[in-house]
Amino acid sequence: MSITVVDMHTGGEPLRIVTSGYPPIPKGTILEKRAFVRDNLDHLRRMLIFEPRGHHDMYGALLVEPDLPGADLAVLFMHNEGYSTMCGHAIIALGRYAVDHGLVEAREPLTQVNIECPCGMVVASVEVADGKAGAVSFESVPAFLFAAGKSVVLPDYGRIHFDVAYGGAFYALADCRQFGLRFGRHGAAAFVKAATTLTEKLKAELPLSHPEHEDLAFLYGTILTDGMESEPGRPTRNVCVFADAEVDRSPTGSGVTARLAAMHAKKQVAVGERRVFESIVGSRFEGAVARTTTAGPHAAIVARVSGRAHYSGTAEFTLEEDDVLGRGFLVK
């Protein structure tokens, strides 16, 4: 067995792009392809994402044949727990990758890349100068505030107030100060414990629904913020803890989209107003509400999020028949 990959990162968050070695994926919708890979090829996800080739917080992308008209490429996202529906940091990396590797024709000063994701079509715009790709922005599917001003009582933390918003995936949004946390003062482990406690509580008690497909109606994680949404003159920090307690090193593209939807619904950001979102490691995305729209019964927005991705290496991974640990394991 041999699988080749190109590794990139966006704001510190890794992306392992599969370039060869996967068996053919049957034709169908992107959600059908996602289900097939999940049900039949999950051993390859574990091999690429888990140790000894990856780690607990590794992230991956598998390019598949597009189904939607106008799509330049289609992608399935992989992480430590399974397969997500949207990933903004991956879109930023894939936009640059598509231009650099000739998946689309490079046009200066801006090249559009239409990327089909499990949540729908995402349009990336790649800055191109002298034939080289640079910064990338994207407009994702309609995002909306699903539940506002909710609260739950959590062991060790007491009553916690939160919102739930959709930005290609559903996130709980909560001010980290309610948990006694401060950015720069507390480490990632404390944020992971708090966010995971809230996520697990809401998964058990808060039903979700999506107007287009029930496969999208699950809570992907919790985003803890610094509570500075209403202060437009300064960056607002957040950390996204998703899947199986995985920590996003970037500000989280789909998370920024969800935050913008919630902020707009609360009149904390106007259409066209640019805001800066900073991650737990200090990397930044810029985000804005591009326009308003609807998503089924929900008032919604289309967000524009921008950032930069960089290459970190290439690899060919192999697996010997008698290598049990080589099939993938995690040490937490």
Topology:
Blueprint: E1 2-10, E2 13-20, H1 30-40, H2 42-49, E3 60-64, E4 73-78, H3 88-100, E5 110-117, E6 120-129, E7 132-139, E8 144-154, E9 158-166, E10 170-175, H4 188-205, E11 219-225, E12 236-242, E13 246-247, H5 253-265, E14 274-278, E15 284-295, E16 298-307, E17 309-318
Parallel strand pairs: 2-3, 4-5, 10-11, 12-14
Antiparallel strand pairs: 1-2, 1-17, 3-4, 5-6, 6-7, 7-16, 8-9, 9-10, 11-12, 12-13, 14-15, 15-16
Beta-strand level of the residues, as a percent range? Answer: 35-45%
Structural class: alpha+beta
Specify the CATH class of the largest domain: Alpha Beta
Describe the oligomeric state of these chains in a short phrase: single chain
Gross morphology: globular
Number of domains: 2
> Radius of gyration over alpha carbons?
19 Å
Which regions contain 5 or more consecutive residues with pLDDT less than 50? Answer: none
Tally of helical segments: 5
- End-to-end Cα distance, whole Å, is 27 Å
Most strands sheet:
17 strands, mixed
Mean pLDDT: 97
Structure, explained:
By secondary structure, the protein is α+β, with helices and mostly antiparallel strands. It folds into 2 domains: 145 residues, Roll (Diaminopimelate Epimerase, Chain A, domain 1), CATH 3.10.310.10; 165 residues, Diaminopimelate Epimerase, Chain A, domain 1 (Roll), CATH 3.10.310. The protein has a 17-stranded mixed β-sheet that branches. Strand 9 and strand 10 form a beta hairpin. The mean pLDDT is 97.
Distinctive features:
40% strand; globular; 2 domains; 332 residues; Diaminopimelate Epimerase, Chain A, domain 1; 17-stranded mixed β-sheet; 17 strands; 19% helix; alpha+beta
